[in-house]
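Good morning N.,

You mentioned wanting to compare the apo and holo forms, so I went ahead and generated the holo version with flavin mononucleotide. This is what I fed in:
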Amino acid sequence: LPKSSCAKEINIGRQAKLDIVKKLGLRGPLIQGPMSGGPASPELVAAVSNAGALGSIGGAYQTPQELIISIEKVKALTNSPFAVNLFISSKSPLPTAEKLTSALVSTRPFRHLLGLPEPLITPPYEINFDDQFEVILKNKPTVFSFTFGIPTREVLKSCQKHDILSIGTATCVEEALQLEEAGVSAIVAQGSEAGGHQGTFDESHSGHFIKLKDLTQMLNLKIKIPLIAAGGIMNGTDISDVLSLGASAAQLGTAFLICPESGTNSAYRAAFNSRTMLKTKLTRAFSGRWARGIENQFMREIDRRAETILPYPAQNVLTRDIRKKSAELGKAEFLSLWAGEGLASIRTMPAGELVKTLLNEFQIAELKRKNV
Ligand SMILES: Cc1cc2nc3c(=O)[nH]c(=O)nc-3n(C[C@H](O)[C@H](O)[C@H](O)COP(=O)(O)O)c2cc1C
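and this is what came out, ligand included:
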């Protein structure tokens, strides 16, 4: 990220805003991004929070019972604030029988290679959001963050009532304006460099991707509540750069993927050391939603037959057996390997040490910026 020449003006404009880092009592402007599907294990979340950044549980794919267990585990390991993240329920209609058959046919060769039977795909395709949110209300984490939409007025009101900060995700100005209007406490500005799913919920914006620097600058002009920059941030200089563009904090996902505490499975971890898996790509192949991951055979083959991809969340359910079996067999070519564009700068370090390193690098970068 290039340095901004107008950092001073931007920072003056920020002073009236909620100081989210201070409010959370963090040692620096750093959030470990929620990562559902395993990587953001309770051990990772707690280690990050214990080191003075904000750890985030990725609870989207967890049943209420599983979510309770995750929260209890984190609470047993840290007294520091942490976030719990959920997906807002999808509004897409159920796929027709014809579409379902064509998606099954398209993915059949992978099942054949993995020795899997044809799955029975029946709705509901998502865990009920209200049931998950009930767990959040009972446990009152410091932060409730979310992606893929805006929760109801009642949900946001209960957050305010119980002093839970609410953080939504935007990938364009329109979404950020809607989130601000709805009354969220802060917004994650998610650039297209980010690993994992794009949080896009404004249909007219689907498939349009904005780089983090441009998005942060645009939102800084339009949005009054704090911005948290996410996407491709891998070191303390990157954090300093996004703050100079108007963000109040940075959210990093990929940087934490291969910490020993993370729940990233071994085939996924190994992909970061592979000599053949080098580049990331945005794909709809695994879930039906645009998401960035390390390019592999499944992505290439299914993206070529894009017309057979079901909308999220049906495609996500359809490919679940393939991803699960591939993880068990260590077959990274058929697995969703979510990672951001900064993957080449990934470091293997215990999470607490990584937080310390990132915050030290950030301090040095800030001093350099101020020419001290
Ligand atoms: C494996 C993985 C899973 C993710 N799951 C979620 C999620 O459940 N909810 C969410 O809001 N963001 C999710 N994200 C996005 C991250 O929280 C974060 O914003 C993103 O990783 C930042 O970009 P970076 O990976 O380039 O650092 C995920 C990212 C990854 C890599």
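The CA atoms of residues 34 and 58 lie 4 Å apart.

Happy to go through it together on a call whenever suits you.

Best,
F.
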